[in-house]
Design brief:
The protein has 493 residues and is an alpha/beta fold. It contains 17 helices and 19 strands. The chain is globular and about 75 Å long. The relative contact order is 0.10. The chain binds glutamine (GLN).
Length: 493
């Protein structure tokens, strides 16, 4: 649950909250859902991301259709009912035994209040053994005195109490280990039993966190409080092997991520995590270099992109930095450097090839230049006439058929797949014959619409552009084959 008022983060600039994640069913969501999928290897859906915008939109629409039968519509009970309905809906829809709900923001935020009140009501309705509040707090470290401070924890627990909620479990974010006395103090002052004070210490990779939580016995505390049997030890073999490989790489490569939001690494979170997954299976550390596309030109590409084993051109929208991305695609093609272009990155590879190989002067995407003589990337038919910006792109999973003699097939080892999308523009099929005759092939096609999903340059070391977003489907248990293949090629294998 994200307390901001945007209906979804699809219209947000990535500088605000990082990347916009896309689910199978085409929801544009907070990047946290990406973490959940990467950890759980279970797809999420529209129902898994609630914003204040969505909640109010539903309530106001119901008011307009007269559903409240003349009642005054208020935060309590109407907004809180809608929040609770959405939590319960996830359980009912999937017949889950337990729903884990994360409420974003900080206790004390004005916009979080309706969510906190909803939790209070839920706890009251379901009974204490059916509802558990796990509160995450910060324990700052004062370097000057070498002390860990518990005051912020005490304060936020108190604010929760003022709102009628007693936290059941506390998870303390900390730079240093908590000693016994500190745990005891927090337990006493915050009104929880000592085993419910859980340490969450800084670690080098987020993928260690579940193992730390296991050491802290968070699972057992939660089950005990929900009056559920302790069950068997969790099966974490695959997870542990992954973390071990991640921490003991045998090789190291450097990959350049060329994009225009590079100042904020969260803007490319799913991509950087896909390199973590793909790197671990290859027992290779991927040193991801974030390179600003605005600074790259054909003249300086050699020095800006020096020393890279592979180049990735990132997704994006609008004109800013586009020529730098095109230069990066050209540099990778001309110098036989493994290349992965994602969405706009694929479109840049196409534009570059049109200009330089097909000699179509000023070829462009009509997104960047509406008057280009050669719109090799053009607005999709279904997008014409759309004026509303929110949730109107081509979103979510669509099928793709892959040609057998391709880098992509070698990576996937299958001809049919389905991948997630988020775009308005596409490869203009009017030019397909020209491209194929000159050495850029469409090796992945949507079997229903004929839309070009994947382009490649055969004979190159590894040059792949994809219209979809492979990064949304990469998980710890199932690293994405394209990232695995791209890393292999960049390792020189
Ligand atoms: N701006 C391009 C389009 O809308 C690419 C989108 C993207 O990279 N996600 O088609």
């Amino acid at each position: 649950m994200d307390p901001y008022i945007n209906v979804d983060p699809g219209t947000l600039n990535p500088y605000e909250h990082g990347e916009c994640y896309v689910t199978e069913d085409g929801a544009e969501t907070d990047l946290d859902l990406g973490h959940y999928e990467r950890f759980l290897n279970i797809p999420t859906s529209q129902a898994n991301n609630v914003t204040t915008g969505k909640v109010y939109q539903t309530v106001i629409n119901k008011e307009r259709t007269g559903d409240y039968l003349g009642k005054t519509v208020q935060i309590i009970p109407h907004i809180t009912d809608e929040i609770k309905r959405r939590i319960k809906f996830v359980a009912r829809k999937n017949q889950f035994d337990i729903v884990i709900t994360e409420i974003g923001g900080t206790v004390g935020d004005i916009e979080s209040l309706p969510y906190i009140e909803s939790v209070r009501q839920l706890k009251w309705e379901l009974g204490p053994q059916n509802c558990l509040v796990v509160h995450l707090t910060l324990v700052p470290y004062l370097a000057a005195t070498g002390e860990l401070k518990t005051k912020p924890t005490q304060h936020s627990v108190k604010i929760l109490q003022e709102n009628g909620i007693q936290a059941d479990v506390l998870i303390l974010r900390t730079e240093h280990s908590l000693n016994d006395a500190l745990r005891e103090k927090v337990a006493l002052f915050c009104n929880v039993d000592k085993p419910s004070v859980i340490e969450s210490k800084n670690v080098s990779t987020i993928y260690q966190v579940p193992l730390l939580m296991l050491d802290e016995k968070l699972d057992q505390v939660v089950l005990r409080k929900l009056n559920l049997p302790p069950g068997n030890e969790p099966e974490l073999k695959v997870w542990k092997t992954f973390v071990k490989k991640l921490q003991n790489p045998k090789r190291k490569i450097k990959i350049g991520l060329v994009g225009k939001y590079v100042e904020l690494h969260d803007a490319y979170k799913s991509i950087s995590e896909s390199f973590v997954h793909g790197g671990a299976v290859n027992e290779c550390e991927v040193d991801l270099q974030y390179i600003h596309s605005e600074g790259i030109t054909d003249q300086n590409a050699k020095e800006k992109l020096a020393g890279l084993n592979g180049i990735l051109v990132a997704p994006g929208f609008g004109n800013r930095g586009i020529e730098g991305k095109i230069s990066a695609a050209r540099y990778a093609r001309e110098n036989n450097i493994p290349y992965l272009g994602i969405c706009l990155g694929m479109q840049c590879a196409v534009i570059e090839f049109a200009r330089d190989v097909l000699k179509l002067e000023n070829a462009d995407s009509s997104e960047m230049n509406a008057r280009t003589p050669f719109p090799v990337i053009d607005l999709m038919e279904g997008q014409k006439g759309i004026t509303e910006k929110g949730g109107t792109m081509r979103l979510g999973a669509y099928p793709c058929r892959i040609s057998k003699d391709s880098f992509t097939y070698d990576a996937y080892q299958k001809t049919d797949t389905s991948e997630r999308h988020r775009h308005r523009y596409e490869f203009n099929n009017k030019y397909l014959k020209q491209f194929e005759a000159s050495g850029m092939r469409a090796v992945g096609i949507n079997p229903e619409s004929g839309l070009v999903e994947i382009v490649e340059i055969p004979g190159h070391k590894w040059y792949v552009g994809v219209q979809f977003h492979p990064e949304y489907r990469s998980t710890v248990v199932a690293p994405h084959p394209l990232f695995v293949g791209f890393i292999k090629a960049s390792m020189g294998e």
